[in-house]
Amino acid sequence: MNFKHYLEKIYRRPLIQASLVIFIITLIAALVVEFSEAPRNSQFGTFWDSVWWVIVTITTVGYGDKVPVTAAGRLTGVLIMFIGIATLSVVTASISSIFISRQMKEERGLQAIKLKNHILICGWSGRGEQVLTSLKQHNKSQPVVMINLLGEELNHHIAERFPELNLRFVHGDFTQETILERASAAQADAAVIIPDTSSGGLNPGDERTILAILSLRTLNHKMKIYAHVMERGNFSHARKAGADEVLVSDSLTGYLLANFITDPGVPQFIQQVLSVESGNSFQSLLVSAAMAGKTYREVQIQLLQDTNQVVLGLARMRQPFNLDEVLSGDSSYLDEFIRRKFQEAGRGRRSDAQLTVEINPPAKTPLTINDILIILTN
């Protein structure tokens, strides 16, 4: 689109046309009043006095601080009262229409979301409600944007159930980059992808989940992507597509069923801890400066005595993969080719760090400021 067509497109908007008419009326009326009133009326000493009077008259404010005394000035006042009020009504209506239209689009999930560091929830099923409930329990302050094909009423019903999360909605297929861009995926902090049952005729299988991972990773290589797949065979595909963590449906079912027989109480304990209604939950606790330097056992005992929180494990950021450690020392064509491919993928010379978890590590393990404790709390 060239500059001329761009100007024509802007000029066709009613708000721009009405504003231009008001500007022309103000300029012409001010010039007429200036020439007719200035020689005989001290109230119009400068051209800006005339402009001020015209604006006050058009907007029907009528301060009365300046009054024309000549026939030409009063006739001009009558004309701008009628013409100006009508034109100003168009401006007011256009502004109201813009805000109403934007509000309606946002309610229908058709408005572009302008957010940063927010959480995306792609797709919807019963798992989605569990995700929102957990975010609510942990008092997450980050905005949440849901991308799905649910109807407007259902989305508003969800928002009413979780008012603390300040939910926003984007209506569309979350595998399409245009829909993800509308949800500001490039500025998002994290994304949760759920096997989708809101898509009607679209396939709710893992193929769409993997495609969504690829699309999200293309738009934002820094965001954390957490995906849920239904088939175990697709676990590796989701990881290769760029998911940071992947959960497989019913991965614990066999273990829990066997433990009903072999270790009674264990499955019931796990179910109770993972139940939203129980009031208990697993949480992560960042090691504070006061804890740093102490051993795992010392902090474990301290938290149990002070807060009745049970420390179960330790999570640490694994050192990111260093590409230079793998490549040869000399700068060969192959080495440069590999480096370039990593940079094109948005990873640079070092890949993203991975979180490793150790359950019940040795008691004398020293803690550092970057460690994360896994605790059971109520």
Please explain how this structure is put together.
The protein is α/β, with parallel strands linked by helices. It folds into three domains: 3-108, Orthogonal Bundle (Helix Hairpins), CATH 1.10.287.70; 119-248, 3-Layer(aba) Sandwich (Rossmann fold); 263-377, 2-Layer Sandwich (Alpha-Beta Plaits). Helix content is 47%, strand content 15%. The protein contains 14 helices and ten strands. It has helices spanning 3-11, 14-37, 47-58, 71-108, 126-137, 152-161, 177-182, 206-219, 235-241, 253-262, 266-274, 296-307, 323-326, 333-344, and strands spanning 119-122, 144-148, 167-171, 190-193, 224-229, 245-248, 281-286, 310-318, 354-359, 372-377. The strands form two sheets. A six-stranded parallel beta sheet has the order 3-2-1-4-5-6, sandwiched between helices. Strands 7-10-8-9 form a four-stranded antiparallel beta sheet, with helices on one face. Strand 2 (144-148), helix 6 (152-161) and strand 3 (167-171) form a beta-alpha-beta unit. Helix 2 (14-37) crosses helix 3 (47-58) and helix 2 packs antiparallel against helix 4 (71-108). It is elongated, with a radius of gyration of 32 Å. The protein starts with a helix and ends with a strand. The model is unreliable at 346-351 (pLDDT under 50).
